[in-house]
Protein: DUF641 domain-containing protein
Organism: Eleusine coracana subsp. coracana
Amino acid sequence: METAKGKTRRSSSNLFLRITDICKVHSVGVASATGEKLKAESTVDSSEDGVHLKVHPHQVSDQESCSGSSTSRFEEAVVEKLLDAISGLKLTYVNVQQSVVPYVPEKFVVADGHFVSELEEAARLKDLYLSVDKWSNPMYQSHVSSRIHEHQKLAVELQAAICKKESDIVLLRAELEELEKSNVKMIEETDGTAIQREGIWKGEPIDMFIELYERSSKCIHDFTKLVVRWMKASGWDLGFSNFPVEKSFVYQKRGHKKYSFEAYFARAMFMRTKEEYFSMDSFDDIMSFTDPFDALVEAPNSAFGRFCREKYLVAVPCSMEVSFFGSKDHRAFIENGGHPRTQFYQAFARMARNVWGLLTVARQLKPKAEMFFVKGDVQFQKKHMESVPAKLTPEEAKISVGLTIMPGFKIGCTVIRCRVYLSMLNTGDL
């Protein structure tokens, strides 16, 4: 009993001394430039104010001293923190005064920030003090415990739901792979029957060229979609930061960035190709295969085989292959003269065969087909260009070419228009 009573009295005495000490620091000189006079006046004012300050300590009863509960100790701790906060407020306020007389803007901003921070800290003590009664209430503790159990039960249910969703994803992914295989097979069958139509084989060479041009454009578009889908699955940044595509103009829509990929693959397939890769002697044989990969298996080092291998190494960056396959083994197999039987390479081979056939026929036409691209910022002209994906509403005078998606060809007086993506002139100023 005596021990508890003594502790309470010593604690009350300590708090009394703290409060008295804080109240004595009532006013402080703030301008060092005014000299010792201002400092002395401030000290006098502090003493006088302290004389008139009266503090009435609370007499602790025996009953209160015996209630040394955790709540009482918590309240004492909060009061101690409150006194520390008040002391901090007084000191930071002195710093504010010192930054005002004389006025120094930089010091004032810093001092004001410290003062506001101390005020916020003191305000948080109120919530801390009010919470002690709530947490000491057994009913509230029971309520919190029940809520915790409810959330734990909910977490278990959510985890079970996540596991079910993951299993569904695995099944759906398997279905997607089957559908992709079916689509590939249907495309191969369609390509095989379309290219063997009588109008293509026995018609005019110019008609065969136009047919191959449309098929090449479609295959480049389909292969680009496959690449973009694989890039997303591999975590690539589609902002083109790591891919050599055109990005110097403003796209009409965010989704139109895919046309830069399409333009990149078109340039890689059509530009800088060796003449030795094109021969009409093997044209009929290569184009007769339903699946172009079978032609590569039968004659891996044919003109088409060498064309397909070289263009793949040019068009597909090494970093992309590593992200898709996890290593450079796929690329090394191609560099050593092979043709890997993978879905990705087979899709590339379909695109490569149509481009190879188009370029082969282009060299046999009389006169030869002359390929052309359009540079960026050139004014749009309907005679030589076709807008992709659609026409723009403003007048033609205000429209310029952003990039060439598919090259055009000129055969004597016949022009197969190139396909371009349009942008507004002076887009950098918008």
